[in-house]
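Take a record:
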Amino acid sequence: MIDLTEDRRDTLAELLNIGFGRSMASLAELMGMYIQLSVPSVRIVHPRQILEALSGSAAGREEVTLIEQTFRGAFNGEAVLALPGEASHTLARLLAADCGFNPDMEPDKLHLEAMLELGNMVIGACLGKFAEILESTISFNPPQVFLDSVRLDRLRQMVPLPDQGTLLVLTHFRLEREEVTGYMFIFIGGDALESLFRAVDRFLDDLAETG
């Protein structure tokens, strides 16, 4: 059943692109700048390739901030927002100015609160819209933030790896006028992947009937 056909791949990429685009449009409007988005890539990977993908997002840097959020419901999985180098600090500064954070907040606490807000705005909004289009329901655990003191050699302790083939969705964004690039990864495996594919197949069947 876990067969990523071309129709399923294209549909997942298109629907996730809609969700990611909506969430990043809200962020761009808030910060008053254009955000360039990539088209999501969708593939089935071996669990060890997850760490390779996360490591690759650091683009040679030793440190990366990770915002991790699990979701469950019609399908279960995990989403990770990876911000290499100084990206998280730049985003925290921009969000602090635009989201009404207390200017007297301690810098470390401000950084953490801004990353939690970013996780909700990007991960929650993207996957929430994606599930809505598929007429499915998912709920989210509170996001966890691993700040940029976390080194890449500790990824294995921070990101739980599934024990079987997993759907990997990768997309990234770049802020205009700022040296900021971020990556979002979505991991769905096992029975949850079969549930997701059933939802996608129903979506395609409905399109065929209405078309």
Remarks:
- The two ends are 26 Å apart (CA to CA).
- The domain at 6-210 is CATH 3.40.1550.10 (Chemotaxis protein chec).
- The CA atoms of residues 19 and 130 lie 5 Å apart.
